Every structure is written in C-alpha cells, then in structure tokens.
Amino acid sequence: MPVPWEALIPFALLTTMFGAAGTLLNTSKRLQNQGKPIRYNVDAWDDMMMDRDKRLTGHKRGQVAEPFAPDDFETNSVWYTERAS
Description:
- The protein has helices at residues 8-32, 44-57.
- By secondary structure, it is mostly helical.
- The chain is elongated and about 75 Å long.
C-alpha cells in the first residue's frame, strides 16, 4: 500500500506547532515562577505559605534565608485588612 507523501507535510506542521505551543507555555509558566517547576495540588497550607513568602519577598515563589523577618512584616498582614461582617 503506497504512502500518501502529500499528507506528511501537514502532519509535520501540526506536530511542530503543537510541540512549539507546549514548549512556549511551559517556558512561560516557568519564567513566571522564577525558574521553578509549576505547583500542583496546592492546599490551604501551601496557599498560606505562598502568601507569607509574597509578604516577605514580593513574589509568591521567593524565599528568604535571613533568620529574622523585616520590620514591616509585622504590619503588612492580610489579617489587618480584612473586614469583619
């Protein structure tokens, strides 16, 4: 049975485009996470730790090696900005 060689060009184009789109999406997500892999299955604890890291460093994936928090860490809590209803 002969192979329809004309069909291989669109197949190669589609395969290349899907591969390029997936690679660009992965690269974009990785760059947004400061080069770290994407987080999956984020629970309440992880969400709380990401909020803390954002208040410490300004980015949700940033981490600090200093043993003491900066002075403004005490006053930039989300707890003080919530309204009781």
